[in-house]
Design brief:
The complex is a heterodimer of chains A (about 325) and B (about 325). By secondary structure, chain A is an all-alpha fold. In chain A, about 75% of the residues lie in helices and about 0% in strands. In chain A, helix 5 crosses helix 11. The longest helix of chain A has 30 residues. The chains are: A mainly alpha (about 325), B alpha/beta (about 325).
């Protein structure tokens, strides 16, 4: 297990390097410059670019990024109050924490609601409850986040005035409700669908019959035998979900005006604030890679048949 | 065992099990008539073999008898106590009977929960019935059971996928034995195993029966194995029991046309005898149990079928000592 985790960490660092290279190339491929404004003269732009090293050849710039990142230096913002370290922007101004808080809450809702709903649908297969859940989850999966977010905002905040239109920094409980619903609805519905299928598969297995022959009561049958065996697809899905919920929060944060990392990230891309784009991408990627690693280890706990090795035996 | 001294452990009367078929519910509800009016008794300490083609309802009958499937109608009496009676509306709680009646399944790997160790699988049954109050007793009992089925005690901490098919079936047997049952339904316990392992498991089942005085309902489609292990054999066709007799009697003097066909298909070890024997081949396929033929269910394939067979369903009657058959032709021949 220890060697496995070590190998995965080394692999993750390589992936992060690759992500840096790709991000660097993409962001230089976008036309424009961080210093391009209507008033600026070519001399001023050249001067500013020279100051931040943007006049150097691209491979030198990339190498500088990598070198600095290895030292834990994420660089300074080109746009925000000249010389503000990117690290401060991401971590110390609460942007990162805010996004993570929103993301984790949505994840929690998706898991805590999706799994039981899927189980219910599986048990009462063919009943009106199953039918209702099927319709609701299909709609939930079909509606894009930005549509749902806008819809919720219009209905509950603008028309009914039950909820605040600006969620702001999520200081009170009420301001959480709409962003969390919009962020989690797709995943809740998808997990419920996934769970229903995999639960149906599990309850038709022979070992369930064995357990009944032993005299196991229905409740224990479900919780102990069926649930454990049907969780694997859901656990697998949680890796991409974590990634999705974090990237998905860009839209939700913009819609509800939550000053999180997602909203800020969109601004940076617009203003070509290269060091911030790079840092945000790397931080979010690292988070996703970490989530994947946790999922892979969680497999082992859920299913003892899975052995964590990197080589075939 | 003489007729008077042997005691009936299990009696089944007119047992039916129909499964609803998914489909057009508006027009008419259709059912798979998996088990149709089966009546039989199983005596204490005996092995009753049950043979028939795939899909003839052997497995369904076995599972319905121990009420893993809820019967559609009929009567099941265990050791003098009715545990199910559709006419008198009796349907007892099965938990106490789960201790007495157990089942060994066909697919050894599928019937063991992949997330539980062998120790947990066996121990779960002990916990449910509260058989081993202390932790030490529990561990000891699990070890003892593993030894009884020829596994090592350290196997308790392993997961089912770490075993071979034969070993998995031994775990399945240890699991069934855990509650110290009286009656075990062996639902094709060896058909998923290699031939070399089959004999080991059959011998083990026989030894266990001798040591513990177990009663078996042994379901298989392989007549040779059933003949070897059973005291009596029942033959099923399309959900109905068509013949029931002592194994020796049934194999040497089959009376039902279907049994004759079935026996003529059993391979003989002697090639000369085998060549000399005439194989009876049936025409057509086995009809669908959703739309079974009227009258005798075998009449569509029976070479001797008459008009009566097409209209009236024959009942199981005794034609010799302990030899039952369900066929109109037998009545005519006397």
């Amino acid at each position: 297990m220890g060697t496995y985790i070590l190998k995965r960490i080394i692999g993750s660092i390589l992936i992060l390097l690759l992500i840096m290279v790709v991000t660097f190339m993409l962001m230089n491929a976008i036309p424009g410059s961080p210093f391009l404004t209507e008033k600026s003269t070519p001399e001023q732009i050249a001067m500013a670019e020279a100051k931040y090293g943007l006049d150097k050849p691209l491979y030198v710039q990339l190498w500088n990024y990598i070198k600095n990142y290895l030292h834990g230096d994420l660089g300074t913002s080109l746009k925000m109050q000249e010389g503000t370290p990117v690290k401060n922007i991401i971590f110390h101004q609460g942007k990162f924490a805010l996004s993570i808080k929103l993301g984790l809450l949505a994840l929690l809702v998706a898991v805590c609601l999706g799994i039981p709903l899927g189980c219910l649908a599986a048990f009462y297969r063919g009943s009106w409850l199953d039918g209702l859940l099927r319709v609701v989850t299909t709609i939930g999966v079909a509606i894009p986040t930005f549509v749902l977010a806008a819809l919720l905002l219009v209905v509950f905040s603008v028309k009914l005035k039950w909820m605040p239109t600006l969620s702001g920094s999520l200081t009170d409980a009420k301001s959480y409700i709409l962003p969390v619903i919009s962020l989690s609805s797709y995943y809740t519905c998808y997990i419920a669908k996934l769970m229903r299928t995999s639960m149906l598969d599990a309850i038709n297995q022979d070992y369930i019959r064995t357990a009944r022959a032993k005299g196991v009561k229905t409740k224990a049958l479900v919780l102990k035998h069926a649930l454990r065996n049907s969780l694997i697809p859901v656990v697998t899905y949680l890796g991409p979900v974590t990634a999705g919920i974090i990237t998905g929060s860009f839209v939700v944060e913009s819609t509800f005006s939550v000053p999180g990392l997602g909203k800020y990230f969109v601004q940076c891309v617009m203003s070509r604030d290269y060091p911030v784009i790079m840092a945000t991408t790397v931080v979010l990627s690292a988070l996703v890679i970490f989530a994947m690693l946790v999922v892979d280890i969680a497999y082992k706990i859920v299913d003892p048949r899975i052995t964590l090795t990197t080589k075939e035996d | 065992m003489s007729e008077q001294t042997r005691k009936k452990l299990l009696e089944v009367e007119n047992l039916r099990k129909y499964f609803p078929v998914k489909g057009n519910k508006l027009l008419e509800k259709k059912y798979v008539q998996a088990v149709e009016s089966v009546s039989l008794s199983i005596y204490k300490g005996e092995t009753l073999g049950l043979v028939g083609e795939s899909g003839c309802g052997k497995t369904t009958l076995g599972r319905t008898i121990i009420r893993l499937y809820e019967p559609t109608s009929g009567r099941i009496v265990y050791d003098g106590t009715p545990i199910y009676d559709s006419e008198k509306n009796i349907s007892v709680k099965m938990l106490p009977y789960r201790r007495k009646m157990q089942i060994i399944f066909q697919d050894p790997s599928g019937s063991l929960d992949p997330r539980m160790t062998v120790g947990e699988i066996i121990g779960e049954a002990l916990d449910i019935h509260g058989l081993t109050p202390s932790k030490k007793e529990r561990t000891d009992r699990i070890r003892q059971l593993l030894e009884e089925v020829g596994l090592n005690t350290e196997h308790a901490n392993r997961f089912p996928h770490e075993f071979s098919g034969g070993q998995q079936q031994r775990v399945g047997i240890a699991r069934a034995l855990a509650v110290d049952p009286e009656f075990i339904v062996c639902d094709e316990p060896i058909s998923a195993l290699d031939v070399s392992i089959q004999s080991q498991v059959v011998n083990m089942l026989e030894d266990l029966q001798a040591n513990k005085g177990l009663t078996y309902l042994f379901i298989a489609h392989d007549v040779s194995v059933v003949r070897h292990i059973s005291n009596r054999i029942g033959v099923m066709y399309l959900g109905c029991l068509v013949e029931l007799a002592e194994s020796h009697e049934l194999c040497n003097h089959p009376i039902h046309p279907y049994t004759k066909t079935l026996l003529s298909a059993v391979p003989l070890p002697d090639p000369i005898k085998s060549r000399a024997r005439q194989r009876i081949l049936l025409e057509g396929d086995i009809p669908s149990p959703i739309n079974p033929p009227s009258g005798c269910r075998f009449h569509t394939r029976c070479p001797y079928a008459t008009d009566r067979c097409r209209q009236e369903m024959p009942v199981l009657k005794e034609y010799g000592p302990g030899h039952f058959g369900a066929c109109h032709l037998l009545e005519q021949n006397g």
